[in-house]
Amino acid sequence: MNAAELGVSSSGRSLTRQGKPFFWLGDTVWLLAQVPSREELELYLRTRAEQGFTVIQLAAVMGRNASGHHSRTSRGDTPFVDHDVLAQRLTPP
Fold first, then answer.
1. pTM of the full structure
2. d(Cα 80, Cα 61) in Å, to the nearest integer?
3. 88 assigned to some structural domain
4. Who has greater pLDDT, 83 or 51?
5. Is residue 30 part of a domain?
6. When comparing pLDDT for 36 and 58, which is higher?
């Protein structure tokens, strides 16, 4: 889906997709971008799609963890190069 497909209804009270009402059935899994392996992530997203979920809500970037260290993904990646928020780290697939 591209951004041009999403919109707001003329009443301003609902979302639309290609001009038709969009039903937001969301699952919230805050650490989805940090914790699972790529295989677990793909299984989770595939399962939720089969269950009819239309939205996955997550925290794309977590800050420091409880011990004060910058959070890393299960793959050992940090979200930024040298903790610089203007230098996003891209992880190859």
1. 0.62
2. 9
3. no
4. 51
5. yes
6. 58
